[in-house]
Amino acid sequence: METPERVLRRLEFKVVRRLDGYLFGDYRGVFYGPSLDLAEVREYQPGDEVRRIDWNVTARMNRLFVRQYLEEKELTAWLLVDLSPSMSFGTIRQFKRQLALEFAGVAAYIVTRHGDKAGAIAFPAGRGYAFIPPRAGRAQALRIIHDLGVLPEATGGGRTDLAALLRQLGRVVRRRSLVFLISDFHTPEGWETALTEMQRRHEVIAVRIEDPRERELPDVGGVYLHAPETNQQLWVDTSDRRVRETYRELVRAREARLEAITRRAGVDMLTLSTGASLVEPLLKFVLFRRRRRWNLPGR
Length: 299
Known about the structure:
Layout: H1 4-23, H2 34-37, E1 38-43, H3 55-61, E2 65-69, E3 76-81, H4 96-112, E4 117-122, E5 130-135, H5 138-149, H6 162-172, E6 178-183, H7 192-201, E7 203-210, E8 222-227, E9 232-237, H8 241-265, E10 268-273, H9 279-293
Parallel strand pairs: 3-4, 3-6, 6-7, 7-10
Antiparallel strand pairs: 1-2, 4-5, 8-9
Helix pairs in contact: 1-4, 1-5, 4-5, 6-7, 7-8
């Protein structure tokens, strides 16, 4: 088993240095969203800078309004990491759980090396929450990598209750923060309202972890499928074309539902696959965030 120090060095070499090569160390261009430093919108006063005029609010109110920004520079980031039974699945390079922990390590390192704070909450279903208070510095990134890595795999069933988790965080975290919701989102419905409420108070990024086999059912004959979060078993004839097509339809419907939930809440979603490198989708995502922050064209 790798030590936290070796894990951090590997992630720094494989991921962070490549991001720095494209973004020139621009931390705010990586995860920082415009809503994090925006404190409020107020009516224009003589002497205010013209570039701070909020034209959307001005058009609605028929009076000039400007954006007022927070003076403090310190940011707190929270890593909400799903370690429920469904995350202990993977068919190509690694398990979804491993990919989730890898991303959490990258995010913690990027945040803490710039003097900001990172904390974490892991939620293995049926076992409560593992809580790591936010702190700054390299030692905190190492602690997050270690403490999350040694948590036992959740067994015995139990579904991820994202609504309860988001409401719990809302009660704990008062100051506006950056929140990474890292999950495969195999969760009962009813968490949409909690996500929207969280996004109103914080900057939320949904990090979806998936495995390629979850998108396509392979033709391997009759098999027993096991649902880890409900402990149910089902015999399926995967050689039946109708079964595979029905599965594709269910996947498409789930994709559309998840996309609609995050879009309505105003939450950006980063999708990571166990069958691909972490770098390329992360780089594409942060470049999109940076372009939008600075109102540049393109995606």
